[in-house]
Amino acid sequence: MATTLPKKDAIIVGMGWTGSIIAAELAKEGIEVIGLERGKGRSLKDYYVVHDELRYGIRYELMQDLSKETVTFRHDDDERALPMRQMGSFLLGEGSGGAGVHWNGQTFRFLPYDFEIRSKTIEKYGQEKVDELGLSIQDWGITYEELEPYFYEFEKASGISGEENPLGGPRSQEYPNPPMKDTPITLKFKDATDQLGYNPYHVPSANMSQTYENQYGATLAACQYCGFCERFGCEYGAKGDPTVAVIPFAKETGNFELRNFANVVEILQEDGKAVGVRFIDTKTQEEFIQPADIVVVTGYVMTNTRLLLNSNLGKPYNPSTGEGVIGKNYCYQILPGVTGFFEEDQFNIFMGAGALGACIDDFNGDNFDHVDLDFIHGGNIAITQTGARPIASNNVPPGTPTWGSEFKAQSIKYYTKSISCVAQGASMPVKSNYLDLDPTYKDAYGYPLLRMTYNFSDQDRNLHSYIGEKIEEILLEMGATEVSERSNLENYDIVPYQTTHNTGGVIMGDDPNTSAVNNYSQMWDHDNVFVVGASSFPHNSGYNPTGTVGALAYRAVEGMLRYLKDGGSLV
Question: Which PANTHER family does this one have (predicted)?
């Protein structure tokens, strides 16, 4: 028998960046909020002993326990989906702060082209371009100009260190912090790309370039360039992290309660309205019902989609008919990359920071002509110096044996003489890539797992090949004497790590027939449910998604406050 708890104004499901921002912004306005997080609580003291690559980087201490919940995967409808039994292509985190604890901190704004991608593509290249590529692209129902102020609010909260992107959308204000330090690697990249006629700039970073205080009164320390960012919490408090930058403020308002080990399994509804959630205490196995006026879903992409499907909220997407919206437009990311080997240069690659790097956008979005190309969009090309830790870092030239004395000698020689250059290639939706509930496999509590049906498209393969050639050109201009062989993009594999930048499933738009939420992240058919996160992206851009997720969170808060005052649909 479930225990019913006292009613709150708002429930937030998941306490990563989006949940933390929404909690702080609602609570400061006097809204009574409870945040339900299925993982454990964290604070700065929990990061003091995390410089352990084996424990955190290889064995995923901060990630989800896949023996209790995972996803199933197949390439197409003709295959049987099987559970992902170990962390592979992407990392599913949990706990207070979410991925904001163990992220690298690269924080871009999506391009103006992204938000109106269908309209702008058809305007320039014609409807036939979209049809030939078989893409399900659609506009977001919001423009870059409308979202720009919210981008800056997130950059203030996370203390972004950066400089103007010469090919990005216009900014109303400079970044809160100046860019991070240049290194021999970033300077070499900038010089080479400048010589090639491109437009390099420093990667915008949530690693602090100086001591900084954000709008919530949190003091973030200057980065020490220790090289332990991705998959680690920052022991110096020098990385934008919700547990340091936002959650303490939310608690200090007196209007916010954080409950850890609370696994939300269902959104409860009556007469077309959400009335609360059902959750299980993962330590005691007790079941609770938490009533509220609004329910805010702020989990990871797959978590958001799965919770709506298990709660029968929204119409599930049907790839055969194209009808339905929940699970639609699942997208991943394309990662063309090349490693260059140098003879004379020595690079201290063991030092760095998660978002220390330089990049170009000359081949991102629609910054280059696609008339004669067999794809749209592109990718941000970057060299980052994140800290090459010894277990996971072992670049050797092509043709080197995979074991033995020569392998060891080449590993030692090129540890400080190799640089990898990688692009984050945009991922466009096709109707055969989607998310739904698995009919066979369930989690530890008896609820169906999420099933992912996904494979690379010709659009993806063509983009990958084109951008890969540009990366090779840059490394040779930098002085590499040899480069790794560029691989072709074939079938997607869920096993080797690629990126955790999954998007889609609960997409945003201006039409209830083709989208799940409006531009305030409010569900069209359940107006007191807000779903905020990368799950609302109708496609994935050539950047990390976090900056855009943060902007959408601030936008959503305005909608929630309006709804709590007046009710009804916001658009």
Answer: LONG-CHAIN-ALCOHOL OXIDASE
